[in-house]
Amino acid sequence: MLTDHPTSDVVVVGAGIVGALIGRELAGQGRRVVLVDPDPGGGASVANAGMLVPSYCRPMATPATLRAGMRGLIGRDASVTLGSFAPSVLGWLARFAWAARPGRARQVATRLVDSARTAADGYAELAAETGVALGLRRSGWLQVAGSAAVLRQQINAAREQKDMPFDILDNHACLRREPGLGPHVAGGVHFDGDASLDPVAATRAALMAAEHRGAVIHRALMTGLAVRDGRVRAVHTTAGDVSAATYVLATGAAPASGTQVQPGWGWSIDLPTVTTLVHAPLMGLDDHVVFNPLAERIRITGGMRIGGTPSPEHDRVAAAAIRHAAERLVPGLRDLRNATVLRGARPMTPDGVPRIAWTRPNLITATGHGTLGMTLAPSTAKAVSALLRAQARAPRR
Ligand SMILES: Cc1cc2nc3c(=O)[nH]c(=O)nc-3n(C[C@H](O)[C@H](O)[C@H](O)COP(=O)(O)OP(=O)(O)OC[C@H]3O[C@@H](n4cnc5c(N)ncnc54)[C@H](O)[C@@H]3O)c2cc1C
């Protein structure tokens, strides 16, 4: 039965890093918050590379990625592939191609970069609040290229970004920073303003902080929204209805109407090690493989498969390709065994811009963080709070 007397102030559906930090923010303001999720912190937020990267705010939709994607579709470059030919995915691809027109990427990056710059401070606060060691490092990010052409492309992209400090390194300078690198390195770019953390620890800490501030976790799947007179009246879940005055959809890559989000599947491989084969965060630009050395393990991520749902065979092939690319770059990794593989769905909008807005008079959508969800989640929590405050101040009509 639906009631007009909600039992909480805000229901947040989805408890990945985005939903958990929104829940923490709103509960901290004294609001009664319910987080609805069958598997809190079980989505992309624990399967990612853990990079907090103002330098990476350029969206995926660029003329170069479009060309690389097309090569992937015809089997010549596997860094971006299509996982489905469903009309929704083809529609996404058409919007992506439109968003990839020259000059557009710079505009999007300019919009996102200020939010990205606050990420490391946001997580430092979370670490201080919870006492959880997040492995936060502000040591920058080294991106290395296997060829002069790829290096040049990255230098040009870096120069296009306003106020983004970076150093250009030759092959020797890269090796001085990372002696574990193999012979296939032409040079690299080091972005000083980037940071990194352990995404599993950060997501756990965000959930812990939300609960500690009073948010309640309702472990159930949302099966639909009850809407009357244009307003959401309740969330239907597999464990009963939950109602509130306001609702937030933070369901990551799960379909949400009007958001144009498609899953961008990627994989992470954890190799248990205490060796220093990789000293600090590293990316191989040719294969888009990212290395994040964490306490007692190194996390390696890669892959971008748009749409559909990967099969176990896709998982096996993707993990083998990422491992191969990683070992080509850092040959010493070959000796490491007992890999744990995770798959995660990046919530990809075609234009690379997250969707954080009122989508009904009492429903906010907060999704579409794509390749930048860990980086942008702290500022998204503040943005959702600002939307609520602005609505509270607005004169009633
Ligand atoms: C391989 C890989 C590497 C990445 N590297 C980085 C990186 O280095 N830096 C960076 O900033 N970002 C990175 N990302 C992107 C980042 O992980 C995502 O953007 C971010 O995790 C999205 O967070 P989210 O909370 O929106 O989604 P999720 O973490 O996926 O959470 C969504 C939650 O919603 C829940 N949910 C879905 N449907 C329902 C429903 N019907 N009812 C209830 N609950 C529901 C799910 O159970 C899930 O817990 C990477 C992603 C991948 C896959």
Q: What does it look like?
A:
The chain is α/β, with parallel strands linked by helices. It folds into two domains: 8-45 and 202-254 and 353-393, FAD/NAD(P)-binding domain (3-Layer(bba) Sandwich); 52-195 and 259-348, D-Amino Acid Oxidase, Chain A, domain 2, CATH 3.30.9. 34% of the residues lie in helices and 27% in strands. The strands form four sheets. Strands 4, 5, 6, 7, 14, 15, 16, 17 and 18 form a nine-stranded mixed beta sheet that branches. The protein has a six-stranded mixed beta sheet with strand order 9-2-1-13-20-19, with helices on one face. The protein has a three-stranded antiparallel beta sheet with strand order 10-11-12, with no helix packed on it. β19 (355-360) and β20 (363-367) form a beta hairpin. The two termini are 29 Å apart. Bound molecules: flavin-adenine dinucleotide. Flavin-adenine dinucleotide (FAD) binds at residues 13-19, 36-40, 42-45, 47-51, 221-222, 250-254, 266-268, 301, 344, 346-347, 367, 369-375. Flavin-adenine dinucleotide (FAD) is lined by residues 13-19, 36-40, 42-45, 47-51, 221-222, 250-254, 266-268, 301, 344, 346-347, 367, 369-375.
